[in-house]
């Protein structure tokens, strides 16, 4: 226990030493730097580290900052190099007005340990303003009886610059009647008088127009002009005279608008219109005209706008009394604005440290400055915080205060402190300002992020657009601050063959998952991967979750017709004997669809026929059959257009054309087109027909026998050598599938069927026909079965 007390006393002594050093430095003469107004932003002013004798990098290590009373930061400090730079262009007239010199005080604040250095930036004036007359024309009424040597006070020009750049001289255009006298009132103000050199004669010269030029002392000098309009009047030998040439009055700054300030009074010994007096401001500034108004008849001066001691303390007004003859007299009214306690104290926060690590030793939480824009006792202040808090306020110099911890903080007992700093002035009535601070105690990273689910199942429809949002994962962390900020990422997949980086991506901030490219159900039905969630603590903690993506099928494959072939070669012609009855199988349209489910369910429809009602198509298996018995009146050649449509949404379709020839006998395998037969019949109808028919039947029979024998021998040889199409065990037996129908066709349609090796599914291939008929080619496209196990062929 004694060791703790000694240790605390040693720390308090070190802190008091730092504060003492800061006070001693702050009490020294301030550093002084100079800069011309309108200097470009970024201009180098000085190196504070060198001027203060600090080592390289010491400003950065000690947490240096520039503070000032200005609302905008006109200075910029580079803590690494110690360079003091100009942060913005300065307008001396806007910052200081007519005040000279223009001094902007600022402080260099070092936090570790706490130390303050005072400095001043002197803004030098440049000649960037020309003299300006408020009125473009000055009118003077001068009696013709005025003797030479008489003077007439002229309006003074205004120049916002100061010093040598301020107004310095006046000139008047060349003439024989007047010249200019320039006077200095001893306070830096220059005014001019027009002096009469020659007696005026109204009958000779009723009026004069002269140009008055005001020059400043800049290099090069700037100038401004106004016009003097002189009207020569008849004799009025008495000018108005004020009772007092100077009026002084004190007005509280909280005086209401419209209140009477003072009443000025003048008298004129003349009579009639020459004795009637009118009061007015004599070339008042714009600020004066906005603040005061005068009654032209009574001379009462009233307040027109609210006064503000903190902005202007003194107003000097020149009031003119003019009679009806044009003669005038002038007096001066000086209005002193007195201060009242109308400005509450202000608290300017320089730095605030929050959160504070628990169990930390005595720590500076905040550094701030207080000020009051009033004067006298109204500007004196006291500062305090609530009792029973583990914090203490320590005053410094220049109205700076530091808020430090009184003892180590314990987060488990209290994680947050609400501190109210109260600043009260000593004026009447007392005004106060309260500033609330929230100081939190930081935590350590002891909780890993937790996913809302251990496994996420997402479903996405194939042919999606790239960058599609397919779902989200979410994890929370019970810690606070950076320890609770969760970052999501994709973890390497267990399957090295899965191109996860090209399939999905995750938003690291919110866990949203996006498909990077379009997915194809026919290529990839499902895949899974793991996502990680890590916090930003030190060390970082993390957790994982499994995401399973299921790809849904879309109707993106149109039906494909396997038979009859539509490859641009000679059309496939089906032969039908005229003796065929109703329901005779003419042909079977064979089609497949690469999709699955109802997207692959196919239906068939006869769209167009040469003779409607003669043929029909079964909707479920594509069989083309006769709808009625054939007759001799039916045409020989028929063309059928069959539509194959799936059941997707929207449905896709394909069409195929069948050519049908009606023959007289079952043994007649081929008949020439009607046009060719007619031509031959015209040549020698009976003889040519018999010869051609006999030759065709004989040749076809011989060719069919040879092909049949060759195919049988080839199959036996391939079966013996293990080549060709193997017949694995499965749902399809290794025999021929007969599509011959009722047996009335001239040739049977038989196909060799085998399973696709290693598929493990009900998919099968049509490899080739056993007995090739006319214009029938081998078919090698895969056919996918319906979900019910029945294939698209309807077998």
Automatic annotation (TrEMBL):
Residues 134-242, 243-347, 348-451, 452-561, 576-671 form the Cadherin domain. The keyword Metal-binding does not apply. It is found in: Membrane. SMART domains: CA (SM00112). One of its GO terms (molecular function) is calcium ion binding. The keyword Metal-binding does not apply. InterPro entries: Cadherin-like_dom, Cadherin-like_sf, Cadherin_C, Cadherin_CS, Cadherin_N, Protocadherin/Cadherin-CA. This is Protocadherin beta-7-like. It comes from Mustela putorius furo.
